[in-house]
Write a structure and sequence with these properties.
By secondary structure, the protein is mainly alpha-helical. It has one domain (2-290, 301-331). It is built from 13 helices and 4 strands. A 4-stranded mixed β-sheet has the order 1-3-2-4, with helices on both faces. Helix 2 (12-50) crosses helix 9, helix 4 packs across helix 13 and helix 9 (203-225) crosses helix 10 (229-245). The longest helix has 39 residues, at 12-50. It is elongated. The two termini are 20 Å apart.
């Protein structure tokens, strides 16, 4: 407490670290407020488009969920660091106000919370990763739980239970593997990693996470069947077969960074996995009577152009000078 209340002059790199934490905390909080306010509208919009364009709905929801993390990273890396390194003298600078140090402390706590969530996800996967390194990319596990899931980020592995290998037909196994490969191509586990790195409490953002997870499952279904009616029927029968086996088996202890065939993670904070019968019935009904998919040409160049223009504006000398003056005013 005495160290917090004291007001010494700070070295150059310590000031940069404190400024980064404070700016990150403020911008993260602003992004969290915006995501919380817009979440109901985004979920409603996604529901209107999810049947025919689930991949597009998932992209909308993910962008809004990651808004706190992206806004904090953009302001720290795009304004705070360049303005500080360009304009701040190398000598020890002025001391900071107590309020500004408290904001920097909040940023440090936020960073620690993010690192804790990532470390917990890593340790939850560690036993499986060790087995997969010895056995290859497909890991067959014993036990009564019906499991087919893709886990891992850099070297994803397919996790499948022995009872599913015995229960499902070759066509059904192929349908399930196609579904998991669709998650792999979409990098859904990496997106879950970004969500884990972005702690955001509140029921609205948990609903946003669940809506995104549901949309990713529908999008993976679409990529797996690729418009083929026979594949669609086979995948529907696979989901029903797994669901029938689930009630008689103990609950599967899930992992934070995995994509499962039968149900999406309900909460990234707890890592809990719940098989929602209503969601499953809707997925099966959709596979049995697929609607004509909407045609959406995904054009990445407008987003890249907007990002380049924003970066160019942020790196203008006048912008950096104004940002440095604002930071100098706030620390006092």
């Amino acid at each position: 407490m005495n160290a917090l209340l004291s007001n010494p002059a700070l070295p150059y790199w310590s000031r940069l670290l404190g400024l980064s934490l404070a700016v990150g905390a403020v911008s993260y909080f602003a992004g969290w407020l915006a995501s919380t306010a817009l979440a109901p509208f985004a979920i409603q919009r996604a529901l209107r488009h999810q049947t025919q364009a689930p991949a597009q709905a998932a992209r909308w929801l993910l962008k809004l969920r990651l808004l706190p993390l992206v806004s904090a990273a953009a302001l720290v890396a795009g304004l705070c660091w360049p303005s500080y390194l360009w304009l701040e003298p190398l000598a020890d600078g002025e001391s900071w106000s107590l309020g500004f140090r408290l904001v920097a402390l909040a940023g440090a706590l936020l960073l620690l919370a993010s690192l804790f969530r990532l470390a917990r996800a890593y340790w939850s996967h560690r036993p499986l990763v060790r087995q997969a390194r010895r056995l290859g990319r497909v890991l067959v596990v014993p036990g009564p739980q019906p499991i087919m899931a893709l886990f891992g980020i850099l070297r994803p592995r397919l996790l499948i239970s022995r009872n599913l290998l015995q229960l499902l037909s070759p066509a059904q196994l192929d349908a399930g593997v196609r579904h998991e490969r669709a998650h792999l191509r979409a990098r859904d586990n990496f997106k879950r990693l970004l969500i884990l790195a972005s702690p955001a409490p509140g029921p609205r953002l948990r609903q946003l996470e669940r809506a995104w997870a549901r949309a990713t499952e529908w999008a993976a279904d679409d990529r797996a069947v690729a418009g083929d009616a026979h594949r669609s029927l086979t995948l529907a029968s696979t989901l029903v077969a797994v669901a029938r086996l689930s009630p008689s088996a103990p609950a599967f202890a899930p992992f934070a960074l995995h994509s499962s065939l039968s149900a999406p993670p309900a909460s990234f904070l707890s890592g809990a996995l719940t098989a929602d019968s209503a969601d499953l019935a809707e997925r099966v009904r959709r596979l049995l009577a697929p609607a004509a998919p909407a045609i959406h040409l995904r054009r990445a160049w407008p987003a890249w152009l907007a990002a380049a223009l924003l970066l160019s504006f942020m790196l203008q000398p006048a912008t950096l000078l104004a940002a440095h003056r604002i930071l100098e005013h706030l620390v006092r």
